[in-house]
Amino acid sequence: MRRGRGDLKEIGWLANSAFGMVFVWFLMVGCAGDPPKPLPQPTPQQTRSDSDRFFEKMKQEEGERTKAQEAPMP
User: Fold this and answer.
1) Distance between CA atoms of 47 and 55, rounded to whole angstroms?
2) Cα angle, residue 30 at apex, residues 40 and 41 outer, rounded to 5°
3) CA 5 – CA 43 distance, rounded (Å)
4) Measured between alpha carbons, how far is 72 from 43 in angstroms, rounded to an integer?
């Protein structure tokens, strides 16, 4: 049994309609949720602590790099 051109047009129309309905449903559901809450801002003490840790780690890595450069190559 062969399908005629009319059947293919009907299938295309149904597929496009289904896609459109799903798209509209996603728009409605996606916009219905609560907006994301902003991240809390770090306190000055947290910022200072983080920068102190970073500075100490940087000094340690610099010392390791200096030791590696001073070591004689075999």
Assistant:
1) 12
2) 5
3) 69
4) 46
> Which band of pLDDT confidence, cut at 50, 70 and 90, is reported for residue 44?
very high
Q: Residue 39: left (phi > 0), alpha (psi -120 to 50), or beta?
A: beta
CA distance 50 to 47: 5
pLDDT at 2: 55
Q: What is the Cα gyration radius of the chain?
A: 32
Q: Residue 1 pLDDT > 80, yes or no?
A: no
pTM over 0.90: no
Domain ranges of the chain: 1-31, 43-74
E strands along the chain, which residues? none
- How far is 44 from 32, CA to CA, in rounded Å? 36
